[in-house]
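Workshop exercise sheet. Pairs work together: one partner reads the sequence aloud, the other fills in the structure field after running the prediction. Swap roles for the next sheet.
Pair: D.N. / O.F.
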Amino acid sequence: MRETKRVKISKVERAVAKTCALIFLTASLGAKAEKPNVLIVHTDEQSFRTVGAHRALISKDQAEVWGPGAVVETPFIDSIAKNGAVCANYYAACPSCTPSRATLLTGLYPHATGAPKNGKKLSEDVKTFAHIFRENGYSTSYVGKWHLGRHVKYEFDVKYNAGFDDNRYMMTGGHAPYFKTTEDGLVSVGKSQAAKVPKDELIHLTDYFTNKTLEILERDKDKPFCIMLSIPDPHTPDYATPPYHTMYDEMQFTAPKTMDPDFATKRPIWGGGNKEGDTNNVSEFNADALRQYFGMVKHIDDSMGRLLKFIEDNGLSDNTIVIFTSDHGEMFHEHNRMNKGIPYEGSAKVPFVIQYPSKIPAGKIIHTAYTNADFTPTLLSLAGIKTENPFHGEDTAPDFVSEEKEVKKERIVYYRKNDWIAATDGRHKLVLDRKEKPWLISLEEDPDELVNFFGKPGYEEVTEKLQNELMAQAMRTKEPLLDSSRSYKTK
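Structure field:
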């Protein structure tokens, strides 16, 4: 029988072994508890049709409403969806700048934030996701357009930081295409004045804010960070900076088919029908403005590429949640309309892509309906942060981290503005208005949203389901549009 030799281990060796084991265990636990970083890029008035990852989910005629082949390619934004997920039915709780931003930051519908319409201030009594991240040891920063304070433009001295410790580059609002650098800071200049300003003094806000975000990323890359970059484009005045301003000069555009005069006369009141003097109603197609709009989107995508490169080059990709979205859409001549503020898809649906390689499977498509009231509770959950803070939105993180490549949960959400309120499950949409008969839209059968299916045989069940859930959610959130002094036509 072979003799087993016993090896004597000294007390010093035992101590060293214990220390090494403790270090290994501590490192392992630390790796598991590592906090994910957060980078949110948020644009202003961007149509979901201008993002390739969203166009891939809809029919060709819906993806190319401005003419065959009239699209702007967004490879960097699309890469986020390729490495993570794209949400096919993500809506603004209110398709207008201030209320939408307030909801995204707080997880509450606009009426509970102190900022239910443009020009109102976000209540200092309401917590934002930045407050909660900061409480959990994060460095929090905000760069770009704020639009949740005073109703003024181009000011950077924003007193209330809403939980973002670094808000040096938080700008009150505005969409001037150019600024010049001075000893006192940035001063806006018009497009005609820009040609007279030395090139080394001239800057476009998309570049300026992206540069500042990169500086903050460099500063904070070795600690948990939560950064929100809010780019003021692709909003009016629809002017892209060189070389983007001529990039689409050769592209041929045509008016959307919903701009047909016959359709325009049949629009409901909430869609601009019978509203004389409404400046968002248009009768002539402006292809030149659309070329500039595409140029701005391309500029944004290239800026997104710069940010993604930094994240990758610094080894932060796996542990960084990267989100690209917008505050609302842009009609750009659909239904003879410009801008936003109405329940049509072009106005209310927003682009939304997200990557978090260590948690979200690559190439995921989520068809479930969301609003940006879900944004804050979902983001906090993805980051592993628990909070007792109340939200109107839901924690939808399980949809993102599940192994399913396609998520199609049945869910109804509501959104609203002024005198209308709408509910959707992503396939049907019910719009109620005080001055208009109810409208039921079948997004599957009529994606152009031209036909009212309300009262048609076969649609009774879906109508009742949408209406009941709309009223239940509105009552739960104490939606003021449903107070007793107001009534919606439901028949």
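Discussion prompt: Residues 287-313 form the longest helix (27 residues). What would you look at next?
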